[in-house]
Amino acid sequence: MSTSRATTGRKQAGRPGNRIRSWVLAWLLGISAATPAAATSLDYTGQTPEGLVGNGRTVVRVQHERFQFHEGGDARGRLLLRLDGRELDLTAAGRRSARFFPGGVQYRLQVGDVRVEVLHGATEDAGYVMAVRVHAGHRRADLALDAQGTPALVMQPGQAQRRGSGAHEWLVRTTPPVATPQATTGASFDAWRERFEQPYRSGLLLRTPNARVDRAVPFNRFLLDLGFNGRLHVCELFRWRDVWSRDLGSGLAPGALLSGRFDAARRTVAYDLERHARADPRGLKVTEDPSQGGSAEGLAWLTQAVWRDYLMTGDRPFLQRAAATLRPWLQAWLDRDPDGRGLLVDDTEWMDHSRFFLFPDGARVLYSNALFTGLLGTFAAIERELGDAAAAQRLAGLRQRFVAGLDALGTGAEG
């Protein structure tokens, strides 16, 4: 984790965000002892499944002998390996395996007496890097890249091998927009492997009796980075390169904040707030897809993300701007309880997946109203923090009305 990203000051000393953010940073640094690579990898024997690598601005689908850009370009290609002038069919490997790790994937192939290793990953300054190592004894090995599309990739010999080792290395990578010593310095196959995973072997980690749970944390941190394109966290890598309020508030923003990705979380929250600022709250949706945001439950998740951001950063001007954007949306939904029963009539599609679950209408009403009740409590805390005691008290009272409405819904007393 880059501590420079996590220590950007936005608050005054003594604010809640100052204390919480300092605690998070101290916690991250306190548990940042390096984790052995074997503890954070997934191994496959006898198969080489497709993997994903990239730096968020790029997403690349990879296999042992080929690659294809999904985001950040349309480049695609495959490796052509020749030994003593004859092409070696990498798809005919007798033995094969794969090791997936946070930051990349490494494939191992055995074709006759030739061992081939292919490593895929990315760095901040290179959206895609492939390192290849071939153990071919004293035979002449030549590697070519059959590729088309953009971005252009360059291939160069890897770090020189020990004399007599019989190993040959090559490096294939996107050309960085600005050449830096870190970007252009040659490195060995093993050094690139270490570089790809290094960000995820320190920082936010777990130490529990369950190795699978511990391993999930660095992999999810990698997915957070893979899904942040520099502008926002996308909720799906392949279909919708956009964000839904519920995905932002329930997973993306909390995960980014807890792992020290404060800037990425803020950018995505700000993106969703801008979408709400442009839309008419009376329409109860921010796009033509009503499940994307603006519904009662979507508003609740976005407000939760705003509040968590403030608790981490203590950025009061941000909280003031966010509250000003969200107040009309809160009132638009309060207006949908005209008889004061403490129950909303939610005519938006609150969750696009609900049609697959075949939820009955009662479950949908319960879900939206439960989240809206939580929203009232969160907004009361926001108004209290911003110094409007009267607004906070009013919202707290409304929350009690909705609690009573939920109780009546549960017992059937609401008729």
Tell me the layout of helices and strands.
Layout: H1 3-6, H2 16-30, E1 42-45, E2 51-53, E3 59-62, E4 66-71, E5 76-83, E6 86-88, E7 95-101, E8 104-111, E9 114-121, E10 129-135, E11 141-148, E12 153-157, E13 167-174, H3 181-184, H4 189-197, H5 211-226, H6 245-258, H7 262-278, H8 296-313, H9 316-334, H10 354-357, H11 361-385, H12 389-411
Antiparallel strand pairs: 1-7, 2-3, 3-4, 4-5, 5-6, 5-11, 7-8, 8-9, 9-10, 10-13, 12-13
Helix pairs in contact: 2-8, 6-7, 6-8, 7-8, 7-9, 8-9, 8-11, 11-12
Care to describe what's here?
This protein has 415 residues and is of the alpha+beta class. Helix content is 40%, strand content 19%. It contains twelve helices and 13 strands. The chain has helices at 3-6, 16-30, 181-184, 189-197, 211-226, 245-258, 262-278, 296-313, 316-334, 354-357, 361-385, 389-411, and strands at residues 42-45, 51-53, 59-62, 66-71, 76-83, 86-88, 95-101, 104-111, 114-121, 129-135, 141-148, 153-157, 167-174. The strands form two sheets. Strands 1-7-8-9-10-13-12 form a seven-stranded antiparallel β-sheet, with helices on one face. Strand 5 and strand 6 form a beta hairpin. The radius of gyration is 26 Å and the shape is elongated. The model is unreliable at 1-14, 25-33, 160-164, 177-185 and 351-359 (pLDDT under 50).
- How much β-strand is present in the residues? 15-25%
- Poorly predicted parts: 1-14, 25-33, 160-164, 177-185, 351-359
Helical element count?
Answer: 12
Assembly form of the protein: single chain
Largest sheet: 7 strands, antiparallel
Shape: elongated
pLDDT averaged residue by residue: 84
| Radius of gyration from the alpha-carbon trace, in angstroms | 26 Å
Strand ordering within the main sheet: 1-7-8-9-10-13-12
Q: How does the helix and strand content classify structurally?
A: alpha+beta
Helix content: 40-55%
Give the helices and strands as they follow along the chain. HHEEEEEEEEEEEEEHHHHHHHHHH
Q: Quote the distance from N terminus to C terminus.
A: 54 Å
Compute the number of strand runs. 13
